[in-house]
């Protein structure tokens, strides 16, 4: 009977992290190891597989065909490993967690996070409120929510600034830019105030001396996207979960002003939350990290 090769989870995690972050140097920093230790792990993995997994590509590295296949399996193995550990460790975790999220993350981000958490901690009840950032912060400060992910500077008590994300002008790919408007003011689609995106956009237009008018206001993100898809005007948002029918508009090509970044912050009701809140917080932070890196919408603190 042939002896089976047992892949090392620690080595697989380094392999996956390296390609998720775009370099093994970054993986070394993230995992708290030296670059030489990471290189040794990669060589060990190639020896176990019996094939090269990476190859030179310009100044960087790219996956070989074998590497691409292993990366897919490695992600699944690590997910099962982490779920097993979390489930056994947290089998006695109980309680109630109240989570607030902006609409940007509700459709794609929320099901994955809650699915992972509920499988590992079936005795914890989770209540989710999807709303705009200002009411979410207010509810967290009052204690009506245990934690909330919000757009803003994170200046409230027990707030943690997670990332600075790029704000984009967003419209239909065929939008002709300011020159297509002639003497007409720029048609804007925006949330009802208060809204950090709306405030940033109007300030940038006013500073550039570009006339504008609000053609559509809504409290709903789906309503915002629908209005832009219909060609009523352009809007401001990050590119996270932007509809594929829309595009981030190039300020130089369209004549629009540059926009600032917007912070993404996590607010907590308590400085030292109970175990269930802390565990869900950890899962949310991991998922946010992956969501931002996947969308290339901004930068995470180093």
Give a brief outline of the structure.
The chain has helices at 9-21, 24-31, 35-49, 65-89, 109-120, 133-142, 196-208, 221-229, 251-254, 275-295, and strands spanning 54-57, 60-63, 95-101, 124-130, 147-151, 159-166, 168-171, 186-191, 212-218, 235-237, 247-248, 261-268, 298-299. It is of the alpha/beta class and 302 residues long.
Q: How does this structure look, described?
A:
- There is one protein chain.
- The chain is an alpha/beta fold and 302 residues long.
- The protein has three domains: 9-88, Winged helix-like DNA-binding domain superfamily/Winged helix DNA-binding domain (Arc Repressor Mutant, subunit A); 94-162 and 263-294, Periplasmic binding protein-like II (D-Maltodextrin-Binding Protein, domain 2); 168-259, D-Maltodextrin-Binding Protein, domain 2.
- It contains ten helices and 13 strands.
- The protein has helices spanning 9-21, 24-31, 35-49, 65-89, 109-120, 133-142, 196-208, 221-229, 251-254, 275-295, and strands spanning 54-57, 60-63, 95-101, 124-130, 147-151, 159-166, 168-171, 186-191, 212-218, 235-237, 247-248, 261-268, 298-299.
- The strands form four sheets. The protein has a six-stranded mixed sheet with strand order 4-3-5-12-6-13, with helices on both faces. A three-stranded antiparallel sheet has the order 10-7-11. The chain has a two-stranded antiparallel ribbon with strand order 1-2.
- Helix 7 links the parallel strand 8 and strand 9.
- Helix 1 (9-21) packs across helix 4 (65-89).
- The longest helix has 25 residues, at 65-89.
- Residues 298-302 have low confidence and may be disordered.
């Amino acid at each position: 009977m042939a002896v089976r090769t047992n892949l090392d989870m620690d080595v697989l995690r380094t392999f996956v992290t390296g390609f998720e972050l775009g370099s093994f140097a970054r993986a070394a920093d993230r995992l708290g190891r030296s670059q030489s230790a990471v290189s040794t792990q990669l060589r060990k993995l190639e020896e176990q597989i019996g094939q090269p997994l990476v190859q030179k590509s310009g100044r960087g590295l790219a996956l070989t065909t074998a590497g691409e296949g292993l990366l897919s399996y490695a992600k699944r193995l690590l997910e099962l490993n982490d779920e097993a550990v979390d489930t056994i460790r947290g089998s006695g975790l109980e309680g109630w967690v109240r989570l607030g999220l902006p609409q940007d993350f509700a459709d794609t981000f929320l099901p994955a996070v809650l699915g992972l958490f509920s499988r590992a901690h079936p005795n914890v009840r989770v209540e989710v409120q999807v709303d705009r950032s200002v009411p979410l912060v207010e509810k967290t400060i009052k204690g009506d929510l245990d934690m909330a992910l919000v757009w803003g500077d994170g200046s409230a008590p027990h707030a943690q600034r997670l990332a600075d994300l790029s704000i984009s002008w967003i419209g239909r790919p065929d939008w002709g830019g300011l020159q297509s408007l002639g003497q007409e003011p720029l048609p804007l689609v925006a949330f009802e105030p208060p809204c950090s995106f709306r405030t940033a956009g109007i300030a940038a237009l006013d500073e550039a001396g570009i006339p504008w008018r609000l053609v559509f206001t809504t409290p709903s993100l789906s309503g915002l996207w629908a209005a832009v898809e219909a060609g009523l005007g352009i809007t401001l948002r990050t590119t996270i979960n932007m509809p594929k029918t829309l595009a981030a508009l190039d300020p130089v090509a369209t004549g629009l002003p540059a926009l600032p970044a917007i912070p993404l912050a996590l607010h907590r009701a308590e400085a030292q939350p109970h175990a269930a809140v802390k565990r869900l917080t950890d899962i949310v932070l991991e998922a946010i990290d992956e969501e931002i890196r996947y969308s290339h919408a901004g930068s995470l603190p180093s």
